[in-house]
Amino acid sequence: MAEGAIRHSKATLSVAVTGIAGPGGATPGKPVGLVHFAAGLAGGKTIHVERRYGDVGRDEVRRRSTAQALELLLKLAVEYAVRA
User: Fold this and answer.
1) Which residues contact 33 (CB under 8 A, 6 or more apart)?
2) Going by CATH, does the domain composed of 2-83 fall within 3.90.950.20?
């Protein structure tokens, strides 16, 4: 998703988030609190991170996920600024 956002827009940075915030939706291989993140930088770099927050409540999973997504964007923004 992050790479597609870069390819199909004029964006320099992108982030994509998917997972199971709960309380339902879990399966044996995808427990509540499992979240995948991808951040993309124009020019080809993509970072993928998996987090397993556990069953800490939907709001907490979303809060932590927002912080993680912003952290990945900041990391790539700094790299982009250094590169420019």
Assistant:
1) 19, 20, 21, 22, 51, 52, 53, 54, 55, 56, 61
2) yes
